[in-house]
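thread: overnight batch results

M.L. [08:02]
morning all. the overnight job finished for the chain we discussed friday. pasting input first so we're all looking at the same thing
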Amino acid sequence: MNERNDEVFSEKVKAGKRTYFFDVKKTRGNDLYLTITESKRKYNGDDSDRIEFEKHKIFLYKEDFEKFQDGMSAALGKISDLWESGEFKKPEPREELTFEAL
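M.L. [08:03]
and the structure it wrote out:
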């Protein structure tokens, strides 16, 4: 929980230079909403070697959860169909790390 005590759940997903945060939060009225944040490392153009982060945030409220899920499912389904058609490049399979491999 954060200082304001409004965070219910948080999931961090690292993806190369980008990190995505999926945060479930609650309002004072005990309604839930979701924030999706993309954080991207950005190197400052000067010689300071200072790393900055560019952030973009989406707020998704309870009345839109179902429509968002439907849209996301439709988009991901289309991507899967396009990959299967062979017309577009699929991502490389990730190597799963197991205890046996250690």
